[in-house]
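Hi everyone, sorry if this is the wrong subforum. Our group has a chain we'd like a structural model of before ordering constructs, and none of us has done structure prediction before. Sequence below.
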Amino acid sequence: MQNLLKYLKGDRVIWIITLLMLTFSIVSVYSFVPVLVKTEGGTPFKYLLKHAIYIGLSLATMYWTHKRNPKYFSQLSKFGFYLAVALLIFTLFTSGVNDAKRWVKIPYLGLSFQSSDFAKLALIVYVSRLLVKKKDKLNNWKEGFWPVVIPIIVICGLIVKDNFSTAAMLFAICLALLFLGRAPILKVLTLIGGGIMLLVFIILIHKAAPSLNLLPRYETWENRVFNRIHDDENVLENAQALNAQLAIYNGRINMSELRPMGGQGIGDGQLKEYLPQAYADFYYASFVEEIGPIAAGILILLYLILLYRVMRIGLNSDNMFETYLCIGIGILLLSQASVNMMVCTGIFPVTGQNMPLLAMGGSALIMTCLGLGIVQSIAHKQQGGNKQEEEQTEDILVTE
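Answer:
Right subforum, don't worry. Here is the predicted structure as tokens:
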């Protein structure tokens, strides 16, 4: 490990946690894919190989990114934003995967990616840049506040139609960045109120004229919320959530069965064959069933350490763009992990957020490593790397 780390710059703790999680994901994904084999065909080895390829691409992306100077991410942020908008619009006109308008198939390769995975990171980078560029004009609606807010509305508006949870989470992260960027609180509250009113208005139009199909997944959202409230009366409708909770129960510590650490053992979980997304959306439930609650506690601790290290890198920077960017990426990672855990434990209604660095998923995994690579590039700069390229990002933003 020591020989490997000497080639990796930046925060060593982040590298160690990332490598540990990615290595363990190979084992867990291989164990959690039986339901995918049943529904899609193929063999567990097929999905293991596919996941291993994505891990290789993700690590290559993280390694290449962490060698770059952070100023380049600021310079490319506007292009990234427009590319994200183009991908999201293109996704609206594709058939998607399993009729979900959030996936785009890559021709001839048999692979697919989720446009919103790229859009989340692109928006956080762009908003971080705009907060620095408009820091002295945020009190002005036209010259400061709206130029920062409009990209948030556009990206979240394009995502919300088919993925409400992702849009809501991204919107909340951007609000946190606005608060940290000292945007006037009254304007932020006005934005929140306007967003809620707009969503209610669109829902009313959808109910009044369902033929317009403004929110094709609205009935699914509504059923998940009401079924969650009345879970005792809707056993069949809540089968996924109830199976996830039962899987966690199966992973309990049981001294009578000689399981002092808990868990059924890797590969011996039973409920994973009845959870449609055991390798992604219900990853935490499958993890607890096979590995046990003590390991689950360690997993939570690793995410918290990861968040702390990312936040520390951001707060140690003397460049506000880098600070906002690290905070946004850190909150994004922890939010995804937290939602996955809360869905599996029954706190949240069922929604599609997987576990960063652990769950099977190509675009999500690559974008997570890209985000961590950006953080590591900032840490590398703080350690004295790329001295010949160092320029203040604020100067770039002003002269653009």
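For your construct planning: The chain is about 65% helix and 0% strand. Residues 2-399 form one domain.
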